Amino acid sequence: MRCPYCDQDEDRVVDSRPSEGGAAVRRRRQCLACAHRFSTYERVEQEALAVRKRGGEIEPFHRSKLLTGMGKATANLAVSADDLRRAAARIESRLRALGRREVSSERVGAEVLHALRELDPVAYVRFASVYKGFTSPEDFRRELATLEKEAPPKRQPSSPTAP
Ligand SMILES: [Zn+2]
C-alpha cells in the first residue's frame, strides 16, 4: 500500500481487527520509509444495488437500512439481533439473485414482509401497517384474517404478555 505521507510502497501491518460489525477488516499499517501510520479497510467487493422508491427517486441499497426497519418492527418482541441479521442477509441475497442493478422499494418491502412473517406475526403486522399504509382498524382486521387463512408462521415466539 502506497504511503499517503511519503509515497513509498513498503509498510508492515501493525494491527488488524474486524470493523463495521464484521463487514470489513481494518488494518493499521506503518510505513517502513517514514514510520507514519495509516489505516486501510478490506471489504467484500459487491456490485452496487439500487432501490427505486415509489416517487421515482433512486438510492443505494443498504442492508443497515433494512435492519433499522426490521428492528423497529420487532422492537420488544422475542426476535434476536442474530435472527434479524440473518434475515436481512437472506433478503439481500434474494434481491441480488434477481440479477438486476435496480429493484423497486415495493419488492424490498415484500421481501421484508415475507421474512418478518417467519420471524414473528406481530412484527409482520406492524411492518405491514406502515408498508401497506393502513389507515383504519379495518385494514388490520383484513390483514389478520389473511394471516389466519394462510399457513401459520414457522415458529410462535413466546410472548411475555400472554395470559
Ligand atoms: Zn511513508
Structure description:
This protein has 163 residues and is an alpha+beta fold. The protein has 5 helices and 6 strands. It has a 3-stranded antiparallel beta sheet with strand order 1-2-3, with no helix packed on it. The protein has a 3-stranded mixed beta sheet with strand order 5-4-6. β2 (24-31) and β3 form a beta hairpin. α1 (63-73) crosses α2, α3 (105-119) runs antiparallel to α4 and α4 crosses α5 (137-149). The longest helix is centred in the middle third of the chain and has 17 residues, at 81-97. The model has no long low-confidence stretch (mean pLDDT 88). Bound molecules: zinc ion. The site of zinc ion (ZN) has 8 residues, from loops.
Brief digest:
The protein is 41% helix and 20% strand. The chain has helices at residues 63-73, 81-97, 105-119, 121-131, 137-149, and strands spanning 11-19, 24-31, 37-43, 50-52, 58-60, 102-104.
- The residue-averaged pLDDT reads 88
Computed CA radius of gyration, to the nearest angstrom: 22 Å
Q: Give the ligands present.
A: zinc ion
Q: What's the total helix number? A: 5
Helical percent range? Answer: 40-55%
Q: Give a quick account of the main beta sheet: strands, pairing sense, barrel closure.
A: 3 strands, antiparallel
Shape: elongated
Could you name the ranges where pLDDT drops below 50 across 5 or more consecutive residues? none
The sequence of SSEs as H and E is EEEEEHHEHHH
How much strand?
A: 15-25%
Give the CA-CA distance, first to last residue: 62 Å
Q: Provide the structure class.
A: alpha+beta
Main-sheet strand order equals 1-2-3
| Tally of DSSP β-strands | 6
